[in-house]
Each structure stands twice: as structure tokens, then as C-alpha cells.
Amino acid sequence: MADNRPTVFADGVIEAQVAHGVARITLAVTGNDGKASPCATLCVPVTQLPSLVNGMGNLLKQIEERVRAQLQQQQPAAPAAPAEGNAAPADGQTGAFRFQN
Question: Out of the domains of life, which is the source (predicted)?
């Protein structure tokens, strides 16, 4: 069976509202002009919102752990100067990985 799920890229949230037990979150994409434009609406039953947020928080923790581990593997044995605000590997490579909950 083919996977027909839509894929939506969003880099922000424009607004969120709750009505009739459903949270409606308007997702945004930032254009070349720097302005956010709506790209989709995520609808989640309010009763499921805590588990969705917890799942996203756990994903963020796993990503942070992976980035830290990659940075530790790439650092030389001698102490290096701290890289402020640089979470990406120094050689410009980015990693892709899958997480399980």
C-alpha cells in the first residue's frame, strides 16, 4: 500500500486556538521576505495535546543528545575553544536519524 500522507514543512506557529475540545494550531513558513505565511492547520483533540507536546519534547532531548555525542566524537584530544551557538558539526555535515518513542 502506498504512503499517501501529506508532508508539511513548517518553521513556526502563527496562532493557536481551542474550540469545542480541539486545539487548532496554524503553522507557518517563512518566506524570502522574512514574513510568516500560513501553510497548514494542525488539529489536535485537547485531551491528546499533552502527549503530543511530551513526545515533541522527548524528540528534542534525543536530538540534543545525538548532537552532543557527535560533537564529542569530532573534538580532538586537546582542549578546543568553545564553539558558542554552533550546534552543527564543524565540518558542515548534518546527520539524519530516526527516533523511536
Answer: Bacteria
Q: Is the dihedral of CA 85, 31, 93, 96 positive or negative?
A: positive
What secondary structure does DSSP assign to 83-94, as a single string?
-TT--S-TTS--
- Say if 24 falls within a structural domain: yes
CATH number for 32: 2.30.31
Give Cα separations from 26 to 5, 14, 36, 45, 95 (angstroms): 19, 6, 11, 15, 28
Q: Is residue 65 part of a domain?
A: yes
Domain count, the chain: 1
Q: What CA–CA distance (Å, rounded) separates 67 from 95? A: 9
Q: Please give the pLDDT value at position 91.
A: 47
Model confidence pLDDT, tens digit, residues 21-64: 999 999 999 999 999 999 999 999 999 999 999 999 999 999 99
Residue 12, C-beta contacts closer than 8 angstroms, at least 6 positions apart: 27, 28, 29, 30, 36
